[in-house]
TrEMBL record:
Residues 1-21 form the signal peptide. Coiled coil: none annotated. Keywords: Immunity, Signal. This is Immunoglobulin V-set domain-containing protein. GO terms for biological process: cell surface receptor signaling pathway; immune system process. It comes from Lynx canadensis. SUPFAM superfamilies: Immunoglobulin. The keyword Cell inner membrane does not apply. One of its GO terms (cellular component) is plasma membrane.
């Protein structure tokens, strides 16, 4: 049986302080075979410096894949293997899976932040789901999810996430 990857996104905007910024993640749904190239687009409405890609595996917490703190600035997170990103302008931060694998089954979050130093929670997030399926009839989008971002601790390069 052919293994398929399923991707669906549900918008989940968080409180963004004095200025709201929206994140748009595309495609909303994606079905592809293993070994295929997948591009998850992340666009923001404001020119916030910081943009992030996270993944959350079933039953686990969020893990940072990559983040950027400005134009052409790319930083590896905790789990960058198997992914690439680019930041050719301030609005876009696409995540690329060069050869999709079943180990990349996860919920994906794109987020942005005006600053990680003086503000505590200025992120917008977009929820996505990428799942390897043996039985396509089991693929169903999940419910909306709310998460909160917390200011980084001293020495941390990215914010923490938690369920309210």
């Amino acid at each position: 049986m052919v293994t398929r990857l399923f991707f669906g996104a549900v918008l989940c905007l968080l409180w963004a302080g004095p200025m709201d910024s929206e994140i748009t993640q595309n495609p909303r749904y994606k079905v592809t075979g293993t070994g295929k190239r997948v591009i998850l687009k992340c666009d923001q409405t404001e020119n916030y410096d910081y943009m992030y890609w996270y993944r959350q595996d079933p039953g686990h917490g969020l893990k940072l894949i990559y983040y950027s703190n400005g134009f052409d600035s790319i930083n590896k997170g905790d789990v960058p293997d198997g992914y690439t990103v680019s930041r050719k302008n301030m609005e876009d931060f696409p995540l690329v899976l060069e050869s999709a694998t079943s180990s990349q089954t996860s919920v994906y979050f794109c987020a942005n932040s005006y600053s990680t130093v003086t503000h505590s929670c200025l992120l917008s997030a977009h929820k996505g789901w990428l799942e390897t399926l043996s039985y396509p009839e089991l693929a169903r989008p999940g419910p909306d999810l709310s998460i909160q971002c917390c200011r980084p601790s001293l020495g941390q390069s990215h914010p923490d996430w938690k369920s309210p």
